Amino acid sequence: MNNYSLEGAIGNQMQIPLTNSWPVGNSSVSESTSLINDGFNFNPTTASLTVNKRGAGSTISEEALEDGGLATVSNAIVTRLSGAIAKATDVAGFRVALSGSETALTDIANVNVGADGVASGTLGNDCDLAVVMSPEAVAYAVKRQPTVKMFNDVSSDDHDIVATVRNGFAQLRTDFIRSIATNGVIGGSNGASLDQFSTSVAELRASNSPTLGGYYWAFVTPAQELALAKELNGIGGISSGSIGSVAQDLANDALLQGLITQAIGCQFVRSNNLPQGLASAG
User: Fold this and answer.
1) Long-range pairs for 154-158 at CB < 8 Å and ≥24 separation?
2) Each residue of 103-119: pLDDT tens digit?
3) Which DSSP state fits 144?
C-alpha cells in the first residue's frame, strides 16, 4: 500500500515519514484543562528506501533466431529474463521485510521481526521462513520500470539481450510483521501449523496493524504449504484415498483460502522466493 515512483527524480534514495503510534485519548477531561501533553505529540521519524538495479541477460546467435523464428525465440527469452528480474525483486523484498536489509539471510537469528514458531534448536539447519504481515509494513519504490534491450554483437554475429529494473523496499514498522520459522524439509517434522499463523495474526491485531479488506498477508514456502494442507486434511476429514490428487489439491486450496482465511484472518500466498535453507539459531 506504500508504493512510490521515483522515475525522473534525482537520486536513488527517499525518506518516508513515519508517525508515532496513536495513544489513547483521555476519557474524562476537566473544563479549561489543556488537551496537549507530551504523550499526544507527533514525533515523526523516517525510514530510508534505496533503489537498486536488478538485471539478467542472455546471448542468442543469429542462427538460433533464424531457425527458431524471431518472434518465438525472442518472446521466450524476454519471458525468461522478465521472470528473472521479478524473482530478484521478490527475493529482495522478503529479505527487507524480515531483516530490514537486502543482504542474504544465512541464520534465523538475523531476523529482526517478531517470531511465532517452534523453538529454533529443534529445526536443524534447514529452516524455511514464512512472513505474516500488514500491507502497510513495507514500502516499495521504482526508479526504472522493467526494461528490455537488444544489442548486436557484430564480431560474433550474436545478439545480447538484457532486462533491467531499478527498485527497492523499506521496512517501515517491525511490529506490523511477524515471522514463522519451520523445518524446510518437505514432509518433515516441526512443519508449519495453523496455530502459528493464528498467533501471528493475533500479535498483529494486538499492535493495531492495518489490514487490507480485513486480512493480513501470509507468505509460505512449498514445504509449509504441504504441512498446512496435511493439517487441513485432518480438520476437513479429507484423505488421499477418498478423492483424487487433483481434487484433493483443489479441496485443500478451498479450505486454505476460504474457511481458514476467514477463521484466522490472513490471505495465503505460496512463494519460492522466501528465505529457505537457513541455519537454526539454537
Assistant:
1) 157/61, 157/62, 158/59, 158/60, 158/61, 158/62
2) 999 999 899 999 998 87
3) E
